[in-house]
Amino acid sequence: MKPVKVKPHAVCVPLPAQGHINPMLKLAKLLHFRGFHITFVHTEFNYQRLVSSRGPESVKGLNDFRFESIPDGLPPDNKRGILDLPALCRSMPRNCVVPFHNLVRMLNSSPDMPPVTCIISDGVMSFTLQVAQDLGIPELVFFTPSACGFLCYLYYEQLMERGYFPLKDESCLSNGYLDTPIDFIPAMSGIRLRDLPTFLRTTDRYDTMFNYNFEQVTNARKDRGLILNTFDDLEQEVIDVIRSKFPQLYTIGPLSMLCRQQISDAKLKSIESNLWKEEMGCLE
Fold first, then answer.
1. Residue-range domains of the chain with CATH
2. Is the pLDDT of residue 212 over 80?
């Protein structure tokens, strides 16, 4: 008798904001198409938003594509998402480790699914790395910006050391300072300060987002691999630079096109995670 083949099991954890959920869900669908069992982890707040906006069927999933949730640690009256992203970024590292640890242990002890074989975490959700290390599970990190955008994050420290950021005062936003050219980021010739991620544009050295993004990129170096939503021919020179720093780099993209081309199963295609109720009147 042939042994029963056990599916690999990926636990996918996006940042709980729509622009991060969408690409992670597309990546999860492609992995499912390739034979993975998927557990997709929302925050409890977003899980309930999905139920409210799309109905309970929206989180039903499939037998081998399931949705779970963990608390984000914020009070009920917090606006969450991009409306109060700094509060969310302060809360998750403090409050999500234990719930996520318990969730992964629960998944591993369930007779209804294969054991967790990898964690795929959003690049700014590095609290999951501690859980992966504690449980001996390999983790890959998925950054949603372009390869160019990600490479800029890798030079945060040099930008600070050279005195470009934080800004000296608010006038730097309008006096032409942001047009200053940057010539030390390889494969990015001709860029200016204004072309870099906007989280850098602060006068406060202790700004939450300024430091949070730096910490997340630093933690990414401890992961088993890096996934970017791009393809080599589009950003070849930049990808070569990143690969020199992250040898286990996987360029998988464009995710939206790959999903359209490869996924034909109606049930899998129907899985969506829109946090807002769709208004179809504009199409009538």
1. 9-144+219-270 (3.40.50.2000)
2. yes
